Amino acid sequence: MNNEATGRQTIVSIEDLEVSFSTDAGAIKAVDRVSLSVAAGEVLAIVGESGSGKTVTAKSILGLLPETATARGAIVLSSRDGGSRGTRATNDVISLSKRQLRGIRGTDVSMVFQEPSTALNPVYTVGWQIAEGLRAHGKLSRAEAKAKAIDILRRVGIPDPETRVNYYPHQFSGGQKQRVVIAQALVLDPGLIVADEPTTALDVTVQAEILDLLRRCRDEFGTAIVLITHNMGVVADLADRVAVMYQGTVVEEADAVTLFAHPQNDYTKKLLASVPHIGQGALQTAERASGRAEAWQDAKPVVVAKDLRIEYPGRFGRGGFVAVDGVDFEIRAGEVLGLVGESGSGKTTIGRAIGGLTKVTGGSLQVLDHEMNGIRERVFKKVRSDIGFVFQDPASSFNPLLTIAECVAEPLVVHGRARDPRAARARVDELLEAVQLPKSYGDRYPHELSGGQRQRASLARALALEPSLLIADEPTSALDVSVQARVLELFAELQREFGFAALFISHDLAVVDLLADRIAVLYKGKLVEEGTGAEVLGAPKHPYTQRLLASLPVPDPVEQAERREALRALRAAERV
Amino acid sequence: MSAPTAPVARAARAPRRTLLSRLPVVHQLGQSVGLQRGMLVAGLIITGVFVICALFAQLIAPYGFAQLRDENGQFGAQLEPSAQHIWGTTVGGYDVFSRVIWGAQTALEVMIVAIILSIFLGVFLGLVSGYFGGWLDRILVVLADAIYAFPSLLLAIVMSIVISGGQSNLYGGILAAAISITVVYIPQYFRVIRSETVRIKGEAFVESAKVIGASNARIMVRHVLRNSTRTLPLIFTLNASEAVLTLAGLGFLGFGIEPTAAAEWGFDLNKSLSDVTSGIWWTAVFPGLAIVLSVLGVTLVGESLNDLADPRLRGRRAVTAAGGAVAATSVVPGGTLEAGPAGITGLEGTSS
C-alpha cells in the first residue's frame, strides 16, 4: 500500500537504519540498512525469527537501545503537535538528546511490551501507573489524571473501571493486564504504538481478544501500529502491511494479502511453509492407525489415569490449589496422546506427575504398572529408565558446564549401562546420529548449539535408554517456527522408528494435530474432550474446544477474516 | 530417516580457549577494559607483591623478624631510616623493613587457614541446606543469622584466650584470627551457596537429572555445586582481607603474636603508638601501609572479579556505528539446522 496513493500521512519513516552491538566477541551488527515507513492508521507487521533484528528495529523507534548499541541512519517520527496546520513537525529519533527523547515517548510513540506481568510495577495501582505517563507530559491534577485513567480503561474494555482503577496488577488476569498496558500506551493518544510480541505470553483465546483490541486502536483511535511478531497467524489477523526480516535486513515487504498469497522471496516462502496448519496430521494418523495389529486395542495401556487429582498445598490457613481435578485417560503402547490446554489448565502438572516430579494426591495414576499415588522414589527409580522426558526450554535443560555428549550419556551412566561418559560415547554418537546431529557436536557445550539443535540433543538424551514412554512438555514452544517444523518432523520419525508411547503436551492445537493419534483437551484441570484429531478438531463438541479452535489464527488473511467473524458469533452465542 | 538434504559447509567453530585463558583470573583479565581493567591490574600487582614478599621473606628481608643484633652488635632502638636499616628500627630494636616483609608471611598464613576452615564447611552446609530445604534449612538459616550478630573481633579475643590462654604464640595467634574469621564467614559462604542452590534447583537441567533417576548426591555435586560457585571468588577475597584485618586488630589490642614467634603488623603498630607523638614516623607508617595495601589489593581483585562476572556491570569497548558483521543468527532452512543426516556423511569424512 503506497502512502502517496492512499494520501495518508507518514507517521514514521526509517531510512537506512544500521545498529551494531558491542559484545564480548566484538561488534555484531543487528540491523543492516533497513528502510521502512508506516502511515497513519496502518498496522505494519515486522516478522522474523529470533535474532533477525525485528525487535532492535522497533525499539530504536523509541530510542530504547541499550548503551552497548550504536545506531546510524534516520528515523523520522512525526510529532503530534507543534507543526503548522496540515503538516506535522518531525523529529529524527537517532539524533535526539535523552531529554528530547523523553518528550516524544508516550506522546508521539509508545510501546506495548511482550510480558504484561513484568511490564507493570506490582507495588502501584494500575490507575497510578497510567496517570504517571499523563503527569510526566503535562500539568494535570490528581483527580483529572484519575478521570482520564478511568476513561481509557473503559475504552480498552476493562469492566467496572471506576473500581478497577484502584486495583493492583496482580488482581487482573493476564489478558486484562495486557489491556492495561495497552491503555497505558494509548492514554496520551500517540500517533504510533510499537507492540513487541504483544500476545506471545497470552493464551490463544485471550490472544484473539487482544488482537481485536489492537484492531480497535487502529480503527477508533487512528493509531498506527508497528507489530513485531514471529506468529504468522497474528500477522494474518491484524496486519495491513508486512515486512519480513532475515539476518538484519528486510527481505520482503508487501501488503498482507499479497504476501500470504504470493510470497516472492525464498525465505518468506519457507517461513510460510513451515507454519503448521490444522488438518495436516490427519493423513499420518490414519496411516499409523491402519498399520496397527488387531489386538492392539486390548493390550495393557502404558499409562492409565482414573479420577486423577493433583493438588498443590496452599499457604498456611488457605486451601490448596487443585491443578488437576478428576481426569481419566489412557495411553496405549506406541500411541501419541496430545494434551492441549491453556496455561493453568494442568497439562504440565499431569506430565510431571507421570514423570514422578509431582506428587499425585488423589485418584489413581498407573505408569508402566506402578501406582504413582504414594509411590516411593526408591521403587520408582528403576521405572525411570523406561520413561524419557523432554523439557520445554532447551536453554536451561542442559547443565551448562557439561558437554552435550556428557549430558546425553548421563542416563546411561546413572542406570549403570556405562561406567562413565567416555565409555558411553559410542552409544551417544549413535543417538546423536538418530536425532540428526553431527557426532562432533557431542564435544560442544550446550550454549554453542542453537535452540533447535539443543532440543534435538534433549530428544537424544530422553531416548538414550530406549524408553517405552516419552513425555514431551511443550518441546517446541521456545523455538522459531521453521525450527519447530524440523523438530516435529524428527519427533514423528523417531516415534515411528522407536515405537515409544508418548504424551505430547502443547498449547498449540496445530502442533498437536501434526503428531498425536488422539487429542485430549484440558480446561481448568478437567478433561473436557478426548478423541482422535479428526473428532476433536473436525467436529468439536465442547464449547471450550470450539472457542479454542476458533481463536487459533490461521496464516491466511482472507480465511482469518472469516474465522474472526465465526469466533465473534460464537462468543455472542456464549454470552446469551 | 528422511532423504538427505543438500550438504552444507560446517560453520566455522569458535576457537576453543586455551587452558591458560580459562583460568579464573586470567580469563577475566582478558575480558576487562578501561577502569575495570585498571582496578583489576592494580589489585593483581599489589596482591602479587604481597604474596611474593610472603613466600620469599627469607630472601628479601635482610634480617630475621626477631633479630636484634648482627655481627656489628645491637641494632639500637628507634633508629632513623639509613643504609643499614632502610626503614629504620622499632622501639624494641627490630629492623622495620624486615618485620614488614616477614609480617606478610604471617598474614598470608592467616588468610589461607581462615579460608580453608570456612570455605569447605560453608559450601557444604549451603549446598545441603539449599538442596533439601525443610527444617534443616530453617535451623541453619536462623543459626547463620545469629552468628551475623557476633562481633568478630570479640570472638577472636575469646578464641585467642581459649587457644593459648592469652599467651600468644605463632600458631595460637594465627588460629585465633582464623577461627574467629571462620565462624563469621561460614554463614556468608553458606548464604551465597544456599541461594544459588535454591535458584539452580529449579532449573530444568536439575529436573531432567531427576527424571533420569540420578541420585541426590550425584545431582548435588555434578549439577548444582559446579554451577553455584560463580560468586565464590568475591567472598573468597573479602574473607581473606577480613582475616588480615582481624589478625592486625588482635595484635593491636595485645592479643597478637609475640615478636619472637613471628612478625605481625598489628603488634608493631601497637608498639609504635608512643612513637607517633614523638615524631618517629617510620615505625607506624610502614606496617600500617602494609595492612592497608594488602587488604586493598585483595579487595580490588575481588571487586573487579565481581563486576566482570556480571555482563551488565562489565564494561565494553564502544563500537563504531554500523560496525561488525551480521551474525548468522537465524536457524532457517539453509542455516545451521541443515546439518542433518546429510551433515553427518557430508561433514565428517571419517564416518561410515
Summarize the structure.
In chain A, 38% of the residues lie in helices and 24% in strands. Chain A contains 23 helices and 20 strands. Helix content of chain B is 63%, strand content 2%.
Any overview of this molecule?
The complex is a heterodimer of chains A (576) and B (352). In chain A, the strands form four sheets. In chain A, strands 6-7-8-3-9-10 form a six-stranded mixed β-sheet, with helices on both faces. A six-stranded mixed β-sheet of chain A has the order 16-17-18-13-19-20, with helices on both faces. In chain A, strands 2-1-4-5 form a four-stranded antiparallel β-sheet, covered by helices on one side. The two termini of chain A are 40 Å apart. Among the domains of chain A are: 282-386 and 467-554, P-loop containing nucleotide triphosphate hydrolases (Rossmann fold); 405-465. Chain A has 23 helices and 20 strands. Chain B is mostly helical and 352 residues long. Chain B has one domain: MetI-like fold (Orthogonal Bundle), CATH 1.10.3720.10. Chain B has helices at 19-22, 24-31, 34-55, 57-60, 96-132, 134-148, 152-164, 170-201, 204-212, 216-224, 232-252, 265-271, 273-277, 282-309, 341-347, and strands at residues 69-70, 73-74, 325-326. A two-stranded antiparallel ribbon of chain B has the order 1-2. In chain B, α3 crosses α5 (96-132) and α9 packs antiparallel against α10 (216-224). Chain B is globular. The model of chain B is unreliable at 1-15 and 329-352 (pLDDT under 50). Chains A and B meet through β1, β2, β4, α12 and α15 of A and α9, α10, β3 and α15 of B. β2 of chain A pairs parallel with β3 of chain B. Chain B: Belongs to the binding-protein-dependent transport system permease family. Chain B: Pfam families: BPD_transp_1.
Task: Please outline the helices and strands.
The complex is a heterodimer of chains A (about 575) and B (about 350).
Chain A: H1 3-6, E1 10-23, E2 26-39, E3 43-47, H2 54-61, E4 69-78, E5 90-92, H3 98-104, E6 109-112, H4 116-119, H5 126-136, H6 142-155, H7 161-164, H8 174-186, E7 192-196, H9 204-221, E8 224-229, H10 232-238, E9 241-246, E10 249-255, H11 256-261, H12 266-273, H13 282-290, E11 303-312, E12 321-331, E13 336-340, H14 347-354, E14 362-367, E15 370-371, H15 377-384, E16 387-390, H16 404-414, H17 425-434, H18 451-462, E17 469-473, H19 481-498, E18 501-506, H20 509-515, E19 518-523, E20 526-532, H21 533-538, H22 543-551, H23 557-575
Parallel strand pairs in A: 3-8, 3-9, 6-7, 7-8, 13-18, 13-19, 16-17, 17-18
Antiparallel strand pairs in A: 1-2, 1-4, 4-5, 9-10, 11-12, 11-14, 14-15, 19-20
Chain B: H1 19-22, H2 24-31, H3 34-55, H4 57-60, E1 69-70, E2 73-74, H5 96-132, H6 134-148, H7 152-164, H8 170-201, H9 204-212, H10 216-224, H11 232-252, H12 265-271, H13 273-277, H14 282-309, E3 325-326, H15 341-347
Antiparallel strand pairs in B: 1-2
Helix pairs in contact in B: 3-5, 3-14, 5-6, 5-8, 5-11, 5-14, 6-8, 7-8, 8-11, 9-10, 11-12, 11-14, 12-14
